[in-house]
Specification:
11 helices; single chain; 4-stranded antiparallel beta sheet; alpha/beta; 6-stranded mixed beta sheet; 13 strands; 308 residues
């Protein structure tokens, strides 16, 4: 869907250069890809460049290998759901979606037909004839999603699509995103700061930080390479335990409710024999040892730390 090569963007503000993207080379494949990073990491700048809203300072990018990289060649193949609601409050949903369809190159008749189709899909029924300013936050998010789908695009960019939604609204939105990819074969780049959402719908990850590419690859590969948290249970505990681990550059944290349960924080890959060796020739006995199954937040933070 997308390839970038040494893509950079530098803004000048009060005679000071701000590097928003720093020689980023990445590839967005078919399927669903999460675009992640802290605030100021370069996610929004990358999206603006892809959409043709701002030019890169240097480097290059291409959308769709079979297409010339011109505005007219991509408008009917790309859909965009902005983070900030860009809605016309004085019109109803049907007119708004029809208007967005026509801006994407559809005829007036086809745009009207597609407006009703996508509103049906996102679950806006009779409310489609009410003015948009009367809608709840969840309904407005559905309208934004519908306008991203109206031109039946191949590649859909979703910028924070679940922000401000109730738990039920988030689940519903995530279901639609997952279905549009798996059932209808659309490729999606999904920018979000809500990490649990990523685990539910994305297999590919792209992580930016300070304008640089931190990680690109499969979620499963990132989880497999995770290093950090282990759980140890001993027969008893005293300050000697802390010293034994410290000598091997391993930080420990005690469980508040279980005085002899420890959590180990380390970049090392530890095995059972590594731990038993620590307690050789001591009166400590190892009762349990296991590597904790990381959640996505653990993996995300670990990847950021590795590159800082």
């Amino acid at each position: 869907m997308l390839e970038t090569e040494n893509l950079s963007k530098i803004y000048t503000e009060r005679k000071e250069e701000i590097i928003a993207l720093d020689s980023v080379s990445l590839e967005v494949k078919d399927g669903t890809t999460a675009l992640l990073g802290p605030n100021g990491s370069g996610k929004s700048t990358l999206i603006k460049i892809i959409l043709g809203l701002t030019p890169p300072t240097s480097g290059k990018y291409s959308l769709f290998r079979d297409s010339a990289n011109t505005k007219s060649s991509i408008t009917d193949r790309i859909g965009y759901m902005p983070e900030t609601p860009s809605l016309i409050s004085g019109v109803n949903a049907v007119k708004f979606i029809r208007h967005m369809g026509m801006l994407s190159g559809l005829s007036r008749t086809r745009a009207m037909q597609r407006a009703h189709e996508v509103l049906d899909y996102v679950g806006i029924t009779e409310a489609r004839y009410r003015t948009i300013n009367s809608y709840s936050t969840g309904m407005k998010q559905r309208i934004l999603f519908a306008q991203a789908l109206v031109n039946d695009p191949e590649f859909i960019i979703l910028d924070e699509p679940t922000t401000g939604l109730s738990p039920e609204g988030r689940e519903s939105m995530l279901f639609l995103i997952k279905e549009i990819s798996q059932k209808y074969g659309k490729s999606i780049m999904f920018s979000t700061h809500i990490l649990p959402d990523v685990e539910k719908i994305c297999k590919q990850l792209i992580i930016l930080n300070y304008g640089k590419l931190v990680y690109q690859g499969d979620f499963s590969e990132a989880a497999k390479n995770f290093r950090g948290k282990y759980e140890v249970i001993l027969n008893h505990y005293n300050e000697k335990v802390k010293q034994l681990f410290s000598e091997r550059s391993i930080e420990i944290q005690r469980d508040i409710q279980h005085s002899t349960k420890l959590y180990l924080n380390t970049e090392q890959n530890l095995t059972l024999s590594d731990i038993t060796d620590i307690f050789d020739n001591t009166d400590f006995k190892l009762l349990a040892f296991r590597k904790q199954q990381p959640n996505f937040e653990d993996i995300f933070i670990n990847l950021l730390r590795q590159k800082n």
